[in-house]
């Protein structure tokens, strides 16, 4: 039954994400589940993990800068 | 990335950006930012990744584990758990990559915390990321994560380095704008072209490391490597460092092939060749790395692109460093081992493992030791469980004694050699330092006892059963268990041996019998023997026949309590004659003998037998003198009522003094006997009993106690040698003797056995005196008959009177000579006795003073018939 298989697979995937999330917590990676699952799917699609790590770091920096800027902007707007 | 996957990844990137970079919907700058981010991500992905990352799932997990152990050990266990669970899941094909990603992201700063306001970041960050890219690469070049990841896992030392490089790469980007990148590019641009090129050197390096010649790096001789002269000094120094393991390997591989002198030498070679195999594995890995790096070389890059390949000469130096240390240590051991063998070899390696400051060296030597000691423990096992010494190359610390050495000959000459203490010996220099001296002694005793039980006691069945039940595999490592095992073996063997000696070989019965018969403990037997033999022994030695002697012995046994002794004992009792010399009479040659056979002869050795014989002969002589004196005394006493009655005052006076001296002699002999039998033999016997009845008594203890027993008997029994020296040596420190200044230290001209000689002089004097008394007695008897004849002769014819008158003259003339001789002998006896007592008074041994006078006064009063009382009662 394909449906069963599928749900089984999904459960396994869910479990994998759980485990990996736990590992990432141990390692202080500061990844939330969503980011993690995006990363996993990217890697499963053949993305180089090292590059992905760089990207995540870069994007975080961007995000922080954006936050600073937006907070500055709201301060200016006032 | 395949085309089909492209859009999926793009989608993923978009969602990632959306998630990580929060954007306000109304802000159009957000759109721009999104695009910029997307471009950035794209460019990063497009870039070719580092090729050398191993796609092994274990590798990534190892990295994480190591990191966790370093920072947070409790989490490491949890990680290991999660990791196994992850592995068991059927989904996910790229588990290693995910783990690797997590590893890369580990300990990254929390994205929710605001960024520190660095001045660098304040300027418009249009292109910081792209510049960061080459910097990262430069750092990766410098610290080589790619290459290092390939090393065998045993090189744990690499872990921190890895961490360091990774963490540096983490914060590389902020610093990147500064001169680090400049310097590295500068270096890359300005590198010299060298001949032969580093690539060529690298290609040949694996061969060199295996000790094989190659075109660029040929081995000139057995112990030297020729370096190409065209190279610049830095490369030369690198090659010098690399040449060390190569040369050491060459030396060691010849050592391994050289023939070994012994089993331990063989095992050492085996252990070293094992280590060399490990080294070759390392070289093979290295070769693989080099091959791979060389195949990916970009010919057009600066320095032949070697900087990017991940393998350089420098790295090779680093990778071979630990192996070089191992090789160095091994070649040191190999060199030293030529002059050492057996236990010394173990001591040598053990010295490295426990006294070398470097823990790496210690651990290495320990590992080596486990292999090297194997034959040693095999020998040890055979020794303590089978009692067999299987040591063809003389490597064990127990060794069969060489019968030709000086020591051995000496003990043999002394008669102290026996199967027990002359078969094996401990060689102190061969006791390895993994075993203490006590322990070695114990091991020695165990094996010796087993061997003794098997070969001398004929109880090999027990030994076999024992070795079957208790044999254990011994190996280097836990000394505590080994010690308990050996203690156990020691206890069992000793117990068994003592049991055998007591029950099967009746050692204690024999000792008792020796005391009873040889040391005259069995009074009734000796008295009977002497009585029955007396008439026989008065005849010359040549007229003694063995069968009469044995017949009398048998008679004495049957007639005394000795008949109740066991057959085992009586069978061994024998009477025989010593070697006779001219003029001896039976008394001088007769001796009793107690035959001791193996294995009891380890306790009562030949030497011991001689001591027993010596004591017996001495006692026998005293006994004989006593017996003779007593019979003469008896004769005189009965005679005094009859034949000896006379009216002649002179004769009466002579008889009176003669009886006085005779009484003195009897008293002295009685005292001497009492002293020897009770003060000496009995007390030593008690001591011996006390020592050998201990539950923990071993055969060695028994032998020692018995030797001590005999020594104390001969020493205190005035038979010991070296009395004078002994006394001189001790006198100054003897506080109980205030007279030592006036006691001139007798010159060494005095005989060593002076007590012995004095005593035999005394005994001889007594015998001579007794002969004279007998003479006097017969004179008196003949005088008495003459007087009776004279009384009766009044009625007899004159012829007879004439004849008897002539007789009277002859008899008369005999009397003064007899009188003179008796007086001489009597005074001689007194003098000798006084000298002896004087000597005894200064004996350091308290027991020996029992024989001497208690006070000096009584010694002075020893003259004039009081001498006998001077002999302390």
Automatic annotation (TrEMBL), chain A:
InterPro entries: MZT1. The keyword Ribonucleoprotein does not apply. Keywords: Cytoplasm, Cytoskeleton. Signal peptide: none annotated. Required for gamma-tubulin complex recruitment to the microtubule organizing center (MTOC). Belongs to the MOZART1 family. GO terms for biological process: gamma-tubulin complex localization; microtubule nucleation by interphase microtubule organizing center; mitotic spindle assembly. This is Mitotic-spindle organizing protein 1. It comes from Cercophora newfieldiana. PANTHER family: MITOTIC-SPINDLE ORGANIZING PROTEIN 1. GO terms for cellular component: gamma-tubulin ring complex; interphase microtubule organizing center; mitotic spindle pole body; spindle. Part of the gamma-tubulin complex. Pfam families: MOZART1 (PF12554). It is found in: Cytoplasm, Cytoskeleton, Microtubule organizing center, Spindle pole body.
TrEMBL record, chain B:
Residues 120-129 have a biased composition (Polar residues). It is found in: Cytoplasm, Cytoskeleton. Keywords: Cytoplasm, Cytoskeleton, Microtubule. Residues 151-167 have a biased composition (Basic and acidic residues). Residues 508-851 form the Gamma tubulin complex component C-terminal domain. GO terms for cellular component: gamma-tubulin complex; microtubule; mitotic spindle pole body; spindle pole. This is Spc98 family-domain-containing protein. It comes from Cercophora newfieldiana.
């Amino acid at each position: 039954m394909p449906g069963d298989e599928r749900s089984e697979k999904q459960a396994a995937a869910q479990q994998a994400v759980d485990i990996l999330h736990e590992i990432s917590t141990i390692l202080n990676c500061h990844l939330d589940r969503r980011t993690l699952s995006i990363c996993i799917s990217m890697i499963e699609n053949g993305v180089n993990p090292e590059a992905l790590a760089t990207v995540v770091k870069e994007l975080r920096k961007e995000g922080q800068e954006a936050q600073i800027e937006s907070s500055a902007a709201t301060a200016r707007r006032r | 990335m395949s085309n089909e996957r492209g859009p999926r990844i793009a989608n993923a990137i978009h969602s990632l950006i959306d998630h990580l970079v929060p954007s306000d919907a109304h802000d159009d700058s957000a759109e721009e930012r999104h695009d910029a981010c997307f471009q950035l991500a794209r460019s990063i992905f497009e870039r070719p990744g580092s090729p050398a990352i191993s796609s092994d799932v274990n590798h990534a997990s190892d990295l994480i584990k190591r990191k966790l152990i370093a920072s947070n050990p409790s989490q490491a266990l949890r990680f290991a758990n999660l990791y196994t669970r992850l592995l068991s899941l059927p989904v996910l094909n790229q588990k290693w990559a995910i783990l690797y990603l997590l590893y890369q992201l580990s300990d990254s700063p929390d994205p929710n915390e605001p960024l520190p306001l660095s001045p660098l970041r304040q300027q418009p960050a249009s292109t910081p990321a792209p510049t960061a890219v080459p910097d990262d690469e430069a750092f990766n070049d410098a610290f080589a994560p790619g290459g290092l990841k390939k090393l065998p896992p045993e090189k744990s030392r690499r872990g921190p380095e890895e961490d360091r490089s990774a963490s540096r790469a983490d914060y590389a980007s902020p610093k990147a704008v500064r001169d680090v990148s400049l310097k590295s590019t500068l270096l890359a641009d300005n590198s010299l072209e060298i001949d032969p090129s580093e690539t060529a050197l690298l290609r040949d390096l694996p061969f060199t490391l295996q000790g094989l010649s190659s075109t660029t790096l040929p081995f000139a001789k057995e112990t030297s490597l020729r370096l190409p002269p065209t190279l610049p000094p830095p490369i030369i120094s690198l090659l010098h460092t690399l040449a060390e393991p190569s040369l050491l390997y060459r030396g060691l591989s010849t050592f391994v092939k050289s023939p070994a002198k012994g089993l331990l030498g063989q095992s050492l070679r085996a252990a070293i060749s094992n280590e060399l195999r490990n080294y070759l594995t390392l070289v093979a890995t290295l070769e693989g790395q080099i091959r791979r790096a060389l195949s990916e070389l970009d010919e057009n890059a600066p320095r032949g692109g070697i900087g990017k390949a991940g393998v350089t000469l420098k790295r090779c130096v680093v990778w071979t460093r630990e192996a070089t240390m191992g090789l160095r240590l091994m070649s040191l051991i190999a060199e030293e081992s030529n002059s050492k063998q057996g236990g010394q070899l173990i001591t040598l390696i053990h010295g490295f493992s426990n006294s070398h400051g470097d823990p790496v060296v210690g651990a290495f030597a320990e590992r080596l030791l486990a292999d090297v000691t194997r034959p040693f423990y095999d020998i040890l096992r055979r020794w303590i469980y089978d009692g067999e010494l299987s040591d063809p190359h003389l490597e064990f610390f127990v060794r069969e004694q060489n019968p030709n050495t000086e020591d051995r000959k000496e003990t043999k000459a002394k008669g102290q050699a026996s199967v027990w203490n002359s078969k094996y010996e401990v060689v102190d220099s061969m006791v390895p330092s993994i075993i203490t001296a006590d322990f070695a002694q114990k091991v020695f005793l165990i094996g010796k006892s087993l061997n003794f039980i098997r070969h001398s006691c004929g109880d090999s069945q027990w030994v076999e059963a024992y070795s079957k039940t208790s044999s254990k595999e011994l190996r280097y490592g836990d000394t505590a268990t080994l010690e308990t095992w050996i203690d156990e073996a020691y206890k069992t063997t000793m117990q068994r041996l003592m049991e055998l000696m007591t029950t099967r070989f009746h050692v204690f019965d024999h000792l008792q019998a020796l005391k009873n018969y040889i040391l005259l403990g069995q009074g009734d037997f000796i008295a009977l023997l002497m009585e029955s033999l007396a008439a026989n022994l008065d005849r010359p030695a040549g007229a003694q026949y063995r069968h009469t002697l044995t017949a009398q012995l048998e008679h004495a046994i049957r007639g005394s309590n000795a008949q109740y002794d066991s057959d085992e004992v009586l069978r061994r009792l024998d009477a025989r004659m010593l070697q006779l010399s001219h003029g001896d009479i039976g008394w001088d040659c007769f001796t009793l003998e107690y035959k001791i056979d193996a294995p009891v002869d380890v306790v009562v050795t030949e030497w011991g037998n001689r001591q027993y014989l010596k004591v017996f002969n001495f006692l026998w002589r005293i006994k004989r003198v006593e017996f003779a004196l007593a019979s003469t005394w008896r004769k005189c006493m009965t005679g005094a009522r009859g034949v000896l009655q006379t009216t002649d005052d002179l004769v009466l006076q002579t008889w009176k003094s003669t009886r006085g001296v005779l009484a003195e002699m009897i008293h002295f002999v009685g005292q001497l006997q009492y002293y020897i039998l009770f003060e000496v033999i009995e007390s030593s016997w008690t001591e011996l009993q006390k020592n050998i009845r201990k539950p923990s008594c071993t055969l060695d203890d028994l032998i020692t106690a018995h030797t001590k027993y005999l020594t104390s008997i001969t020493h205190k029994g005035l038979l010991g040698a070296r009395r004078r020296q002994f006394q001189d040596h001790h006198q100054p420190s003897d506080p109980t003797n205030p007279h030592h200044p006036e006691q001139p230290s007798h010159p060494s001209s005095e005989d060593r056995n002076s007590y012995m000689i004095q005593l035999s002089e005394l005994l001889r004097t007594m015998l001579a005196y007794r002969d004279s008394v007998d003479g006097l007695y017969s004179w008196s008897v003949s005088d008495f008959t003459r007087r009776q004849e004279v009384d009766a002769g009044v009625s007899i014819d004159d012829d007879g009177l004439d004849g008897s008158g002539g007789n009277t003259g002859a008899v008369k003339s005999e009397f003064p000579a007899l009188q003179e001789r008796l007086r001489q002998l009597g005074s001689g006896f007194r003098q000798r006795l006084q000298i002896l007592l004087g000597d005894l008074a200064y004996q350091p041994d308290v027991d020996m003073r029992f024989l001497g006078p208690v006070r000096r006064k009584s010694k002075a009063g020893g003259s004039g018939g009081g001498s006998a009382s001077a002999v302390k009662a």
